[in-house]
């Protein structure tokens, strides 16, 4: 289905999205702030316990809330 340019403009305007040339003016920091609610960072680390056992930890961080989500802990990183 084809839409007129004015229809597309009206939809973008209603959603609060600026025209393309103005969108390119945002800095990387501003872009990340705008997208933070949908960005997850992940990291993998090792923890050595008091009993000389090494654990492997995978966790995620939600950028918007800074909430850490534990995804998994294992003693065998190359196992199932």
Instruction: Specify the structural class.
Output: alpha+beta
Output the radius of gyration: 22 Å
Q: Shape, please?
A: elongated
Fraction of helical residues:
25-40%
Strand content: 25-35%
Give me the number of helical elements. 3
Number-wise, the strands total 3
Domains, number: 2
Terminal-residue CA separation: 48 Å
Biggest beta sheet summary: 3 strands, antiparallel
The SSE string, one letter per element, is HHHEEE
Q: Would you give an account of this structure?
A:
The protein has 80 residues and is α+β, with helices and mostly antiparallel strands. Helices cover 29% and strands 31% of the residues. The chain folds into two domains: 1-35, no CATH class; 39-80, no CATH class. It has helices at residues 5-15, 20-23, 28-35; strands at residues 40-48, 54-62, 68-74. It has a three-stranded antiparallel beta sheet with strand order 1-2-3, with no helix packed on it. A hairpin with a 5-residue loop joins strand 1 and strand 2 (54-62). It is elongated. The model has no long low-confidence stretch (mean pLDDT 84).
């Amino acid at each position: 289905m084809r839409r007129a340019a004015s229809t597309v403009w009206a939809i973008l305007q209603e959603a609060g999205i600026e025209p393309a040339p103005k969108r390119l003016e945002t800095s990387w920091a501003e872009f990340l702030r705008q997208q933070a609610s949908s960005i997850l960072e992940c990291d993998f680390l090792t923890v050595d316990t008091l009993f000389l056992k090494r654990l492997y930890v995978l966790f995620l961080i939600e950028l918007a809330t800074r909430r850490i989500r534990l995804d998994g802990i294992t003693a065998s990183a190359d196992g199932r």
